[in-house]
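As a warm-up, study this chain.
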Amino acid sequence: MRRRVLAFTAFLLLAALAGHALTLLRLSEDDIVRQSDRIVLGTVVGTRAEWADPDGDGHQSIYTITTFRIEQTLKGPDQPGTQLTLRMFGGTIGPTTQGVGGLTPFSTDERLILCLEANPQNALGSPIVGVTQGRWIVRTDGNGGEFARREFADASFMVRDTGGTLTPADPPSGKEEPLSDVLARLQTLVQAEERK
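Now compare it with the structure written out below.
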């Protein structure tokens, strides 16, 4: 637990030092799938903010608790039709708002593909692998076509060069693609990981 607290603290510090709301180590889709314990498609059915002290240090922060209904599972134990509880740092209670720019809260009725850590209800920062990188927003157009894209507003990215030095990098692709293409690509990566 202490390592998770230190990692999240370092993540917040890097964001502040870089002058951006959020600075992330860029992950490939293969990295995201490999680090995910769960990959699901579903819909946000509700959110609520609450004060919590997840690391037990006596200091409370606002977290948003989200209920997510599973439609399809690509990886992990979740069954279609079941619900999953997610906890993410940030939210608003009364006049108090806490959060990190770039760590976008969930919205009720939002349809998403999420790549999640093992216990998303116990996350200190974000339950999403790569903070925001394992989240695809799904939309349906006027003709019934389904599309998915990732959003990285207020985020900057870094990569490690061959010497291990962090250097600025372009963000991962945020282009909109057919939902079926994204699901097929992620499923192929999951199957390749399972064969290893």
